[in-house]
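Review box. Two proteins, two foldings.
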Amino acid sequence: MPRLAAARRAVASSFVVLFAWPLALAHAQEGAQPLLGASLPGLLSYAREHNPDLGVSTFEAQAARERVEPAAALPDPRFELELMDFTNTVNSGRSPSLLPGQVGNTRYRLIQPLPFWGKRGLRGEVAEAQAGQVETMQDGSVLEVENRIKTAYARQFQASGQIRILRETLSLLDAIEKIALTRYGVGLVPQQDALRAQSELTSVKIDLVEAERRRRESAARLNALLARAGDAPLADPDRLPPVPAGVSYEALLEQVRNRSPEVSRERFGVVAAQKSRDLTWLNRYPDFAVGLTNNRPYNAADNWEVMVGFTIPLQQSSRRAQEREAERKLEAAQGRVVAAETRLAGRLGETLAAFEASRDKARLLQHTLLPQARATFASAQSGYESGRVNFNTLIDAERQVLRTRLALLDADVDTAVRLAELELLTGAPL
């Protein structure tokens, strides 16, 4: 019996290992996958699949495209059943009836309405232009979501960079504090130097707390755009998008006119207004209908009838008003195109000016001010260790380096944000 129990335990443990191994392997593979957030293309690809706003715009565009075929289709035929002399007055001796074949005459009629030539095609073209409008709105939705993701990614990069710079500054201040305490311990400097170093450390730690808060906020904002939980883990961004070397206002303005979803939407509106105006003009002419009737009199042979009918467009004053309305709508649609181009041209000029200013500022900070600040700090540190400068000079030099590094980070991030705005306006990557 003990051997049998031991064998059962061994078999049970084997089954546990057998069934637990795939689960453990799945968890291990899941943990081995890189975190989302390090790469901007990865974020954009994830958002295209999971962002609910993009899903809604896709479905709306598909629905608008499905309206094109019904708009150009023939109207449904109409069937009529007519019971003549249902009281059977002619057929004396029969009681009234509502059954086909049991009355004086039963008529079966099929009628097909036929719009005037050209109306069906114009209705289809109007629906086609309206579908194009919705599809350009979908393109605009994609660009807007991508712009928000690019901006959130840049802010995440900014917060992570601030945390990195502040932590490096804390390490530097720790070393400065040790120097100050050492010199204070041998009586070379006053106690104020050590207290000033500790105060500076506390100030940087407060800034670090604020930077951590900004990083959590930007991570929650980015997760919301990805349709993820607000506290879902995100990797630190690797790098900002590359900045194009030369950007021409004329070239960008041409892209705005040719590729901007907003301008394209208004141009589709012009096409729809033109086709609607042409359709309104065709309403001067009558629509037709053809019909086929089968007569079945009681106790008599069947016979057939063919019918042709048409509408009589008598309300000409009403039609003239509709035509004037269509003309004004066309003029309004054409005006909206000009207004959209003018509005986007102004935004393009403002954004391009801000982009170039941020780019030039980052270049000056990177290649001029930051090397100067670091050289000043190195000189001040050497002078303080040798007793040639006071502690305030050293702290001011350290503050200058910190401010310059943070300003450089802010300029790079602002350049990336302005670049994303330019791509939103032009409708394509630069």
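Next protein.
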Amino acid sequence: MEETLNLNSIQTAVTSTSHSLDVIWVLISAALVMFMQPGFAMAEAGFTRAKNTANILMKNLLDFGVGSISFFLIGYALMFGSDIGGFIGKLPFIEETAVKIDYSFLMFQTVFAATAATIVSGAVAERTEFKTYLFFSIITTAIIYPISGHWVWGGGWLSDLGFHDFAGSTVVHSVGAWMGLVGAALIGPRIGKYNEKANAIPGHNLTFAALGVFILWFGWFGFNAGSQLAAAGTENTIAISHIFLTTNLSAAGGTLAALATSWFRYKRPTLSLSLNGALAGLVAITAGCNIVSPQAAIIIGILAGISLVYSVEFIDKKLRIDDPVGAITVHGVNGALGTILVGVFATEGGLLYGGGFKLLGIQVLGVVAVAAWALSTAFILFKLLDKTIGLRVPAIVEEEGLDIYEHGEKAYH
């Protein structure tokens, strides 16, 4: 009897310790992802002009502030509440009782929601009304992002099909980018951006931009490896280590590929494109970081880095859509690319591993479906905001800077 009691006590202690390790890992990962917020802020500020720096920093601050509350009150339930028809979660999440809510998971998902909103900020930078953007951020984190997120992570119809997006190449990054694409197109380019040709409007501080990218690269280990949602036990530690490696290799591949491609195309090794190449590699690997080999991660990063250079040029010069930081390409094009490549490189079910075209077809379907949702809802929302609040600041405000007119203060003196 005594031996049985001792065995039960040991088993209870092991279970409790394992649970504690899992929760601590998720919360540490959430903190790493939250630290990506200043990374986005620094990168966006660096790639834009000094006169709008306070506005950029304010938007990134408020994305996390309003996003945390709106996702807590509404978004989390729509994303992870009881499934309704494979499309949406049930409101309110309180119906599940507070006891059943994993607060560490809620916190982890909150920082993801804020990331999706922040991506839009870069695409519409330097000419958007602050109050309009604030309202847009609330709707994004409360409704638009959570509903499509439910399809994949909340037990919705795409998860039933077997769509694989481990940490959010499509769920998070592409959603934000497609919304940013609509916003940038409807708001229009910055003054002086396009005449007979596309004119470069250089950012004011590449040091800030580089710092932001390094912070994002660091935080991405929490973004991807944290999505394992557990750390206790050999299986989880192996998985986390694998994800760390594939994440890093893809980022490195994206950096080098963007460097080489820009060097070949423009005859100079371009820092700004190399920085975005790193982000492109990170975005692309996010969907399949847990089920592709390290070698495949390098290839995915290289493809992302190459596509980054040509996609930025196409959107800027051919479509004439003004995206000051390259957010549409980094997060949208490469989010879609990385998600689709899961169907090629997945070690189980991938095209190159004897799985045929089934997974690849599901991945393409998921990318298209989520893109259609984000594009259509963003179009409706931006149009409504344009008719009510207004999207764009007056020309005098744009020319002299949003910092003084919108916020009454400058970032630099």
